[in-house]
Design a protein that fits this description.
single chain, alpha/beta, 41% helix, 12% strand
């Protein structure tokens, strides 16, 4: 039996949002909509994470990923960006491409996060730690990324031995954990607390966003639906206002449970629907390679959007 760690009250939460890249009705990228959504995220006090899966980073052309970096850099704020290797099953680990991606992101003022690849996922435990050590050797800061295959076929969840070893890499500032499994994340919090308390365990569990109560911070695709509401939730927790925190968290969790149902990558279409319903983007079209949700989802999302727009929130 796995026992939950103690709740850490009145804690300042580090929040990161995997920013949605919106598309126009003609399937071209809505750059104006992206900039406006990026600005809303920054204004809420949430750290933007761009070129993530929510931003279709693995599927974008190199020049489009660079434009995302340029537009984010122009805001002169701290941000995280996905570093991608577009390989296929059976390919070897491509250190050189990761290093080029890291260099490009760092030159743009961002902190890279090593998005999973087939080559990286296929390494044995020792080689995986070696790979992360190589990635961190010539960079000031970066983040790791554990991702379940329900999100991406190249995903991998690390063993606890690998996770503990990664904490010894001083330039590795934290790691996103997206297993959707509370117990595995609780294990990581315990290891972090015993070895390196400054290391950020960034929950990617959109089905259990209350993990922040136990000491996780977050990098969530769900946060892009309503960064302003996440910010209000986080402020309430830091202020010790448990009632407000839980009221907001319950509504956001309802949204997460609905949007992150199988197939999980369909959440991106729900995010576009939700942002359009809130009047933040003009179209709920997504990247052509992204799974689509049924049109009937809009009725449920409209109910939630109405709820979080009410004065109590």
């Amino acid at each position: 039996m796995n026992v939950a760690p103690p709740i850490i009250r009145k804690r300042t939460i580090v929040g990161m949002s995997a920013v949605l890249l919106p598309f126009k009705a003609d399937h071209s990228i809505d750059w104006t909509g992206f900039e406006a959504h990026l600005d809303r995220t920054i204004a809420a006090g949430i750290i933007p994470a761009v070129n993530m899966d929510t931003g279709f980073g693995p599927a974008l052309a190199t020049h489009d990923r660079q434009r995302v970096l340029d537009l984010t850099q122009a805001r002169s704020v701290a941000f995280v960006a996905g570093a991608h290797v577009n390989d296929t099953a059976g390919d070897e680990f491509d250190l050189a491409t990761y290093q080029r991606e890291f260099t490009t992101i760092a030159a743009s003022g961002g902190v890279p996060i090593a998005f999973p690849s087939f080559g990286l996922a296929a390494l044995d435990d020792g080689a995986l730690v070696d790979a992360y050590q190589s990635l961190g050797r010539d960079i000031d800061a970066f983040y790791g990324f554990e991702l379940g295959t329900m999100f991406h076929p190249a995903g991998r969840i690390f063993s606890v031995e690998v996770f503990a070893a990664l904490l010894e890499i001083r330039t590795l500032q934290g790691a996103k954990h997206s297993s959707l499994d509370r117990a595995q994340e609780w294990q990581r919090l315990a290891i972090r607390d015993s070895i390196r308390p400054d290391f950020l365990v960034l929950t990617g569990n959109d089905l259990a966003i209350d993990m922040v109560m136990y000491g996780s911070d977050y990098l969530l695709g769900l946060a892009t639906f309503a960064p302003d509401v996440f910010a209000r939730r986080d402020f309430a927790w830091a202020a010790g206002d448990d009632e407000t925190f839980l009221k907001i968290n319950d509504t956001l969790q309802y949204l997460g449970q609905f949007a992150f149902r199988t197939p999980v990558p369909g959440y991106r279409h729900n995010a576009a629907m939700f942002l359009k319903l809130r009047g933040h983007i003009d179209s709920d079209v997504t990247h052509p390679d992204s799974p689509q949700r049924p049109h009937t989802d809009r009725a449920v999302l409209a109910e939630i959007a109405y709820s979080i727009g009410s004065p109590q929130y």
